[in-house]
């Protein structure tokens, strides 16, 4: 096998992942990752550039991705449980259905990030997730995501009834019922992060 017991340098992890990405073989990466887990080897991908890569279903559980550039990456259904994503650039990435349980997202740049249906239980991050309503609501600095729609507070407040109704056939009634609560939650969140 490719992995031997002991430390593997950051560059080797990146080269293995890059090879799997270039060959569109995330399954091979996940097999390598499983072997690393068996030997207790932590995947170290600090500072790597994974801009605009396709990583659907990738296993990066417990990986170190501090300061990584993940802009525009597709991490749909990725396993990032307990991953260290502190200070990572995660702008405009797809994390739909991703497992982010207990992940460290401190200071991660999450602007315009799709967190639809992502599992954020226990994650350390600068945001709020509200579940149990028709659509999941995620509030982070400068944006609110409702379901798969991501907009600033100002945009949400200024949408016309027609624009809301065009988002989904049941959206207008739901929005009228929950708009004030969402705005209140956003303002409280903003006040908390300003302190």
Observed structural traits:
alpha+beta, 195 residues, 5 helices, Pectate Lyase C-like, 4 strands, disordered N terminus, four-stranded antiparallel β-sheet
Give a structural overview.
This protein has 195 residues and is α+β, with helices and mostly antiparallel strands. It has 2 domains: 1-125, Pectate Lyase C-like; 127-195, no CATH class. 32% of the residues lie in helices and 8% in strands. The protein has 5 helices and 4 strands, in the order ααββββααα. It has helices at residues 10-22, 26-38, 153-158, 161-167, 171-194; strands at 127-130, 137-140, 143-146, 149-151. The chain has a 4-stranded antiparallel β-sheet with strand order 1-2-3-4. β2 and β3 (143-146) form a beta hairpin. The chain is elongated and about 55 Å long. It starts with 9 loop residues before the first helix and ends with a helix. Mean pLDDT is 88; it is low at 1-9.
Note the overall shape.
elongated
**Rg of Cα set:** 18 Å
Q: Percent of residues in helical segments? A: 25-40%
Low-confidence stretches: 1-9
Tally of discrete structural domains:
2
What is the name of the CATH class of the largest domain?
Answer: Mainly Beta
Number of strands: 4
The CATH architecture category of the largest domain equals: 3 Solenoid
Mean of residue pLDDT values = 88
Spell out the CATH superfamily of the largest domain.
Answer: E3 ubiquitin-protein ligase SopA
Quote the beta fraction.
5-15%
- What name is given to the CATH topology of the largest domain? Pectate Lyase C-like
User: Which structural class matches the secondary elements?
Assistant: alpha+beta
Distance between the termini: 51 Å
Strand order of the largest sheet: 1-2-3-4
| Count of DSSP H/I helices | 5
Order of helices and strands: HHEEEEHHH
In this structure, how is the largest beta sheet organized?
Answer: 4 strands, antiparallel
């Amino acid at each position: 096998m490719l992995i031997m017991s002991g430390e593997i340098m950051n560059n080797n992890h990146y080269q293995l992942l890059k090879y799997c990405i270039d060959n569109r073989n995330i399954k091979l990466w996940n097999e390598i990752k499983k072997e690393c887990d068996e030997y207790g080897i932590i995947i170290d991908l600090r500072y790597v550039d994974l801009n605009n890569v396709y990583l659907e279903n990738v296993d990066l559980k417990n990986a170190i991705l501090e300061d990584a550039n993940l802009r525009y990456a597709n991490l749909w259904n990725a396993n990032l449980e307990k991953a260290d994503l502190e200070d990572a650039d995660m702008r405009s990435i797809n994390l739909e259905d991703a497992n982010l349980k207990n992940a460290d997202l401190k200071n991660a740049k999450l602007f315009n990030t799709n967190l639809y249906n992502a599992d954020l239980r226990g994650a350390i991050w600068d945001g709020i997730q509200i579940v149990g309503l028709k659509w999941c609501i995620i509030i982070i600095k400068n944006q609110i995501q409702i379901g798969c729609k991501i907009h600033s507070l100002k945009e949400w407040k200024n949408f016309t009834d027609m624009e809301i109704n065009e988002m989904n056939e049941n959206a207008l009634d739901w929005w009228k019922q929950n708009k004030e609560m969402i705005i209140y939650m956003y303002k409280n969140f903003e006040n908390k992060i300003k302190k």
